[in-house]
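Morning!

As promised:
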Amino acid sequence: MSALAKYYYPRSLAVIALLGAGLWLALGETRLVWWSALLPLFEWMESTVFGVIGQTWGAAFATVQAIHLLGMALLGGSVVVADGRLLGLLLTDSPASEVQDQCHRLFIWALFLTIATGIFMACGVAIKIYYLNVFWYKMLALSGGVAFVYGIRRPLLRQGLDSIHPRIVKLVAVASLMLWFTVAATGRWIGFSG
Amino acid sequence: MFVNSMSVNQMIYDFAVWLDTHSPSTALHESFYMYNWIESTHVLALMISLGMLFLIDLRMLGLALPDIPASTLAQRLSLPMLAGFGVMFVTGLMLFYAIPVRTSQSLWFRIKIILLIAAAINAWLFHRRLRAAGADWDTMRKAPRPLQWGAGLSLLFWALIVICGRLIAYDWFDCRTSPIEPIASVAGCLIDQAQF
């Protein structure tokens, strides 16, 4: 049995099981317990400097929203190119591992930018989003996306694409695209809700 | 100064009012899900089109994917980028069609259109320079200076386009709020116009 099969496949399955358990907890009755416990945090967020700026200075909020969108565009670009390469659709004449590594560096910057601007925006409308289901779906998708990247995708691909079954590689790429699409789509839907 | 005569603003206004009389325009505007689906598609297509564009521009500036030949990257990512821009263009037209009068008299929309034209000219010049530059520099970390300028301007234009696009949603300078001059003239507000 290869090191990959011995260590990384069980690890990936463990992360998937953990995500499943998180989803079950988030969508089951248990959610009401932690949801109530988080209300003081959201009330505090609105009273912070970010919250006050977001509520009183519309131009700042709108500009940060636009920067958030630019961050999402960069994140989308890095994910689409990296996964497009795994699917054999983009940059097929460049080494896959090189494309993965270099896109991951951009992904980290983009993720940092979107999370930083996302926190600012959340502070401005904290109580509103607290009561929006779609906001929690987005947080679930985002947590799932980050767990997927650092718990499954990166450790698996670090072993070298040659040692992984091609179908697994394609499955990882499709799952990644679906996860980040869900993050973006649920984020957009927050704007239409409430 | 408010424009009172048959001018460009009057023609734009008349055209927008004519579009507004179309029943599909009203239906699109009043359909919560359809309008939001179109707007979501417009924004999500940005992740493909601008995502690809940013990667190409950052590569030219030596800030991303430095080990991949620059012209290869530009060539390979052009198709998904243009597909994304195509979706953005079609959905953008539909969004304009849904709310033609307010959008055509939005200060931000007008600035966005000017920036789009500037970005298109910059892209055309960039591709001309890319073809003329040959392939000697292809594996170098940074592109030649003229291409770097083109990439930098492209990033700037598109960042401003996204900001203006986002600001269209806000009604600070809408004609019904009677904005001060010269904003009213630039936005194309007309005296005694009907409000939509």
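The mean pLDDT of chain A is 88.

Hope this helps with the figure draft.
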